[in-house]
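INFO batch 0412 | record 1 of 1 | parsing
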Amino acid sequence: MDRRSFIQTAGNVAALSVLHGTASAQRSGAPGKILAIAAHPGDGMFTMGATLAQQIERGGSGVLLSLSLGEKGAPKDIPVQQYGDMQRAATQKAAHLLGAEAIFLSYPDAELPFNEESSLRVCDVIREQKPEIVVTHWSGSWHKDHQNCQLIVRDAIFYAGLQTLQRSRPAHAVSKLFYADNWEDASNFIPDTYLNIDAVCEKWLQACDFYPMWRGQTGFFRYNDYYSSLAVMRGCLAGFKRAVALMSDPSQRTDRLQSL
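INFO prediction complete | emitting tokens
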């Protein structure tokens, strides 16, 4: 067994060039739609933007849904509302560069509620957008908004696929759910899927650069250095030049095969 095989076997990792949703899409290789759902716009672009970019580059589509504007991360010299407007503008520019769509909900930063109302609002976005794959936060986070976002998305996916739940749009079943690799959500995050992003990495990094926090203007954490280096490190483990790591939801890890 060579070193790459050992790493993949030990980590139970699938090193993929593409993500597939439905079984029919997997057989045909046809790209589908990915919906990335983040508590804050920067989290979505830094941790999920490369996955969206890769899907779009293949001919699929991607949508970034931000549940808040992350406005309370403003530096002392910028008013909170102004910073929220800056976050919205940065996300729209970044999404446009990647060829993605940006959608915003209006929950206050640091006050993201986990309740039926928020879950149903996200359910409605899922039914409207009809993604095959959803990517969101992992629950092992010290950030309250990230924890609640993960719970909201889990319930929203359930509601979206419930045929007997009457909403403005018909039911839609999401094929796969993945959790993104985020420095704030690292507790018990165990990646099992590595996605090759080398073809879109530079475009993704350019999109991230629209955000003041990426450029180090809003705090101590070096987002640029961390996520650009993380892509290289994950690529080393997966056998790619640069990669993103995803964690699949435990409920979808059973493979049903006729033979090996």
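INFO post-check: The longest strand covers residues 33-38.
INFO record closed
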